[in-house]
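tool=predict chain=A
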Amino acid sequence: METASETKLREYSRAEVAKHDNAQSLWVIRGNQVFDLTTFHTDHPGGSDVLMQFAGQDVTEAMRDSSIHTHAIQAYRVLKDFYVGEITSDERQDQPPASGCDEMEQVEEEKFLDINRPLFMQMWNSKFTREFYIREVHKAHHLPRPAVFFANSFCETFTRTPWWVIPVYWVPIMVTLLVLGVKYEPPNVMLVGFVFGLVSWTLLEYSMHRFVFHYDENIPEGTIAQVAHFLLHGVHHFLPMDPLRLVMPPALSTFLGLNILGLLCCIFTPGMVHAVAAGLTAGYVLYDECHYWLHHGTSSNKYLSQLKTYHLRHHYKDFKAGFGITSDFWDTVFGTQFATPVC
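tool=predict ok
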């Protein structure tokens, strides 16, 4: 039986790679190296269809072609995780980039976290500087399975949230708020409050993402601050395609929701509090489901495709811009759009 190291040293002819040209077995060649992207193509930021066009082929020049799909150095870092071997010596091709420095050579050696081991204790026992942590946590990685936070299975359960948990948990709460609210205000007034809450969510979504989740360089030095940042949002940038870390765990969202409800009680009267809270809840559910779709969904609709591209650019190219999830409206208002427009 072959060991992992022996498998990685295997050589393949281009004809052998060409046989792996479908969704069940998708291999590509890049720089005379062979990569098995079978477990990755559905998570590809540019969409599975883009990769399927090049299944079994050499993608060296295609990855440099911005008219197909622009790739940052982070893309090559992710690609490294899927290395399975080399092209045979008699079929190797010289394809140097225009810059003269191969992209793979620009990928720095991994000095942060081992994604194949429980993440929490690695963070807890770390001695990273703030500057190093912020830089490294925003370098995207990929696993073909959900990452493990805790070695303890009970603790691990609370870190994993499937997308469907959000509507199942929050929609009954929203309905309860509306039912209770009509005891204080007529339906037409409730509708106004609900719409106000729904629209207000878009600003709250933007503000939380920009000022709370991306406190980033402002976090204090020290491990505890880094652990808190990692649990709140850092892990999502470190492993952006983890399907069980794309929506907020109910325990955390409930804590934040109760604080927001307390603030609303200081501003609005009974009935209106219920309506606005229900609107905010509806906005939150739509936001979290939209966020999951932006990472794992596909659509031929131009607007939705642009929205997906916009958000993934925030992950893979510039985490200091593009804070809107369901739209870029507030990014436009506050000048936090990307320096160059999203195509």
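The mean pLDDT is 90. The chain is about 50% helix and 5% strand.
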